[in-house]
Amino acid sequence: MTPWPTELIASRHDHQLARLAAAGIALALLDAALPSPLPGIKPGLANIVTLYTLETLGWRAAMWVSLLRIAGAGLLLGSLFTPGFWLSLAGGAGSLLLLAASLLLPARGFSVVSRSLLAACGHLAGQLLLARGWLIPHDGIWLLLPPLLTAATITGLLNGLLTLTLLESATDET
Q1: How many domains does the chain divide into?
Q2: Domain range holding 125?
Q3: Within 13 A of 55's CA, how many CA atoms are on the CB side?
Q4: Of 26, 40, 53, 166, most Cβ neighbours within 10 A?
């Protein structure tokens, strides 16, 4: 029997991304267990991990953590490849696109809180565009925009403040 020609060795960075993705999955599971005041409104706690990763390791790491979290949570919740999974993926993609765009703009105008607000709005936009194009092909879906945008603004603000606190406590420890 011949040995494998290459052996994959996980780097310290790989382990760090895996830990962050696991934390994101845990928060996504907690998020799914929380009661929702209205269908489709969740706090998006797992986005805290994506924002933390963006601020500490950069956009590419945040993208991997976000995608791993979405796939892992979908697998554990039994929703992998269901419409809910695709909505989550579309929301994650919208969020990541706005986060990438925010990195191209002057840093003085963007804190982790403002990036969190952008990410929340990007998440909502991605989900609504997919829902309009695939699940509910009717313009009536736009009537959901005011309450969903209000919820996205509130949760984006809270998640941004929580991420800021987490980043400040991590800085204080070093």
Answers
A1: 1
A2: 42-173
A3: 22
A4: 53
